[in-house]
Amino acid sequence: MGCEEFELLLNGYIDGELKDPDLKRVEKHLAGCPPCQKLVRDYQRLKEVTAEMKFKNPPQEIWDSYWQRVFHRITRGVGWVFFLVGAVAVAGFAVYEFATDPAVEALQKLIVFAIFVGLGLLLISVIWERVKASKTDKYKEIER
Amino acid sequence: MSLTEKEIVSKCQRGETEYYEQLVNKYKRSAYFYALGMVGSVEDALDLSQEAFIRAYRSIKRFKPQYQFKNWFFRILTNLCISHLRKKRRRRVEVSTEDKEGRTMPLPDDHFNPHLLLERKEIMRQLWKALSELGNKHREIILLRDFQGLSYKQIYEILEIPVGTVMSRLHQARSRLRVKMADFM
Best of A9, A36, A54, A70 to disrupt the B interface by mutation (most B CBs within 10 Å)? Predict the structure, then answer.
């Protein structure tokens, strides 16, 4: 095995992840190879510096409200599901009642049906346009 | 009597949301700082780490108890960060400028600012810059191993790559980092 093949194992060596027989082979190679010894020193130095790297802590309020924000977003999702299921059920019931009401004339039903179909199609068209635009809009990141 | 992590996860799987707070409090800091290392922005790191907790909760019933929650959660967080960085790169190319010769120039990135570092020693600034210049896969493995201090087995569970690949990817990442940090070696 040349130095190149050992380079891969050196990472396992400095991370303490090597076991025999690889560990013994690396130790034996290192004992007689100054370039690999230098590599180990450099990698260890890199590891130390990375482990020392610390970021500024955000203000304490961020940590205090962290769970609340996660919790609200979890429960908000559940709330929307319930709302949508309920809204669809109410709308379906209203449409059924209206369509089967003998007191309402067929022409009236047709007109109301046309209005709602028209509104539905307009809504779908607007949503579709927004979805398409959001994929290609170059300025969506700009706050208005 | 305090519950073990497995017991807490089990309660969350039965829909007892209030227990999830314990898991969030336990991992919120490491999640935030890992995301910050990945994306280099405080706002994005906060948003991504919280989104990862939400997604983890929504799919917690699929979590298999033989794994560690932390590893499973970090897999979700890593995927979110990578997906975020890809979207951001695409946006930067779309929202680009042209130089005098008409070549497309992406807008400068204000992320990975040295002001995010607690200590702004020259070596730390250089390391932060070097990390930002690494590819996503190399940055994530350095952060998981050397910043979070995870074992190869944990990294294998998070990234779902064999231990041999963990070692070779670490080798590539550290080699590149070593070149970028040559003045400090």
Answer: A70
CA atoms within 13 A on the CB side of B96: 14
**B37 & B116 share domain:** no
Nearest residue to B159 (alpha-carbon basis) of B50, B84, B82: B82
Nearest chain B Cα to A141, which residue?
B91
List, for residues B57-106, the tens digit of each pLDDT value: 999 999 988 888 999 999 999 999 999 988 887 766 565 556 556 665 55
Domain count across chain A: 3
- Count CB atoms within 10 A of the CB of residue B52: 24
Taking CB atoms and an 8 Å limit, are A58 and B32 in contact across chains? yes
pLDDT digit string, tens, across residues B164-183: 899 999 999 999 999 999 88
Query: How many residues in total does chain B contain?
Result: 185
Angle formed by the axes of helices A66-100 and B20-39, nearest 10°? 100
In sequence order, which residues have a C-beta less than 8 Å from that of residue B126 and are 6 or more positions away? B180, B181, B183, B184
Whose structure tokens read 């998070």? B158
Check if the interface score ipTM surpasses 0.85. no
Q: Which of A30, A52, A74 is the last residue of a domain?
A: A52
CA-wise closest residue to A25 among A13, A37, A17: A13
B25 vs A: CB within 8 A: yes
B147 class by beta-carbon count within 10 Å (0-12 exposed, 13-18 middle, 19+ buried): buried
Find the domain containing B154 and state its range.
112-185
